[in-house]
Amino acid sequence: MPIIKSAKKRVKQSRSAAARNAKVKRSMKNAIKVLSGKPSANTHAKAQSRIDTALKKGIISKRKAARLKQRVSSNAKAAKVNLGKKSTAIKTASSKKTTAKINKNSSKKKINKS
After folding, report:
1. What domains sit in the chain, N to C, each tagged with a CATH number?
2. Which of 16, 41, 58, 113 is most buried (CB neighbours < 10 A)?
């Protein structure tokens, strides 16, 4: 056990970082397992997203991330998952809201006081 105060703090920081890294790695592995069990476009997107997150946080290397993403994609293609199309329901709903805001704002008249 460390004696110096900074060494004690470093042990505490490394424990919390290890717990955080384990959580990200576990969520990545679970997403890959879900894809192999229930292949769909959403599970494929989630698995790739979790792999990217682990890469961004430095938990896995760039090469391992590329290898995992290649395996995930090949498994999805083998299960005949349509990877090209993604749900557009969210995009259309948000675009309707923005056009409604634009129309609402444009209908207001500006009054110039001269």
Report:
1. 5-103 (1.20.58)
2. 41
